[in-house]
């Protein structure tokens, strides 16, 4: 139970740090309070790899956003994670907003964003014919992209585990103590661990977990954003990420394609005061999205909504990312206040944290043995018919479609069940294999996946099957045995 490094928080930031520690000869434990990785903001966001014109120049956020964007494409290719560099447009609906576009353009240039430029109304219409009539100009950033955010996290965590790292879920950290020999004792709901160094990457709990070891000099301001996810029938309506001008609440409501071929609209912005983990959605905020998104793209068919969801931003009282060794607490590091563009920046946050640790005197010897930072994953529906035929001939499980909406095969679900961080719930299978993401939201494939999960588990009672987090049991009682 003794590790060189313990990382607390298995969102995309913790996973990026774990992934970037693979080349070093150190024992690393990645902990999370949830039963899977990517259960915080990482699974519920806009999924945009921002170009980097939004953060103020000379901030850590600006630097890591542009660098993260640059790294993301190769990283996703190496990890078989869906990514598309589709470009983004910020719309101006008035002359005042046109001036704001100019400011964003200058910021983008100062931050090193490549090929950024403004478009007049005609150029904009040519690029995006469905754009709302009120839009008079736009800022075009071709380097912006879209990604599968939870898969970016999961892939890095899986490769970390495959290379000898350890992930433990259901391990909420409840105390951190610095011992006389300068090591740390970390008490969690899954046991007690010792570490030479600790890294905190705790999202909206960053200030609370920092408070376990020192008084925090910042506060997290948890800010919920709600979304519509529309069916694939709407997915081709826009080809770029369509933003409106940013305001005091953030980047505003966007309309964007997703890497799965759907359309996403949102988010709203609402500070949470009581239950900071409340990811419910509200009719009033969803109505707000409809009104705002309709200005950007006129003919969105809201009847084709497949899901509403919300995520909670780790906004903070500091207007930048906080990535540092905790003051007066040698040996413990943190990545806090990682609000948007945290996802886009994450490919650069891991390497930044590793460099920071080295410059703080943490000894990270290079591994002498082999390691492999890549992951291969079968995405059956993205293959050509020829590729599919070869695969099915080798392994007939890839020829049996289980999720009809998304075309996910039994072979892909089996791969997910056998992956380095095995799924423990129906939604964990969804995050790995893409099942239940379509129109029926798992209505048809759910029972078959439950059977497959049961076959995998030691405890074979259906009562143990979860929809998602602990406590979300799918079945509550076993009434009678039914003969079929
Ligand atoms: C609505 C919304 C839209 C966004 N859109 C974008 C976007 O388009 N592009 C972009 O770049 N960024 C976007 N972001 C920001 C991005 O999602 C985050 O910056 C990123 O996911 C942060 O990752 P993280 O690992 O820091 O946090 P998280 O993913 O929240 O992970 C933190 C983890 O810490 C764990 N944890 C907390 N406390 C403890 C404890 N005591 N013990 C053990 N584990 C603990 C949590 O369970 C959680 O899994 C958006 C965010 C939101 C909410």
Number of alpha- plus pi-helical segments: 13
**CATH superfamily of the domain at 83-146 and 221-313, please?**
D-Amino Acid Oxidase, subunit A, domain 2
Q: Overall 3D geometry? A: globular
**Total number of β-strand segments?**
22
CATH class identity of the domain at 83-146 and 221-313: Alpha Beta
* CATH topology-level name of the domain at 83-146 and 221-313: D-Amino Acid Oxidase, Chain A, domain 2
Which spans of ≥5 residues are poorly predicted at pLDDT below 50? none
Mean pLDDT: 95
Distance between the termini: 48 Å
Share of residues in strands: 15-25%
Descriptive notes:
This protein has 484 residues and is of the alpha+beta class. Among the domains are: 83-146 and 221-313, D-Amino Acid Oxidase, Chain A, domain 2, CATH 3.30.9; 380-464. Helices cover 30% and strands 22% of the residues. It has 13 helices and 22 strands. The protein has helices at residues 12-20, 60-79, 95-111, 121-127, 149-162, 206-210, 232-235, 283-296, 342-359, 385-394, 410-417, 426-433, 446-456, and strands spanning 2-8, 28-31, 48-49, 83-84, 88-92, 117-120, 137-141, 145-147, 166-168, 173-178, 184-188, 191-200, 220-230, 241-244, 254-257, 263-266, 270-271, 305-316, 322-325, 332-336, 401-403, 408-409. The strands form 5 sheets. Strands 1, 2, 9, 10, 11, 12, 19 and 20 form an 8-stranded mixed sheet that branches. Strands 13, 15, 16, 17 and 18 form a 5-stranded antiparallel sheet that branches. A 4-stranded mixed sheet has the order 6-7-5-14. Strand 10 (173-178) and strand 11 (184-188) form a beta hairpin. Helix 1 (12-20) packs parallel to helix 5, helix 1 (12-20) crosses helix 9 (342-359) and helix 2 (60-79) packs across helix 9. The longest helix is centred in the first third of the chain and has 20 residues, at 60-79. It is globular. The mean pLDDT is 95. Bound molecules: flavin-adenine dinucleotide. Flavin-adenine dinucleotide (FAD) binds next to helix 1, strand 18 and helix 9.
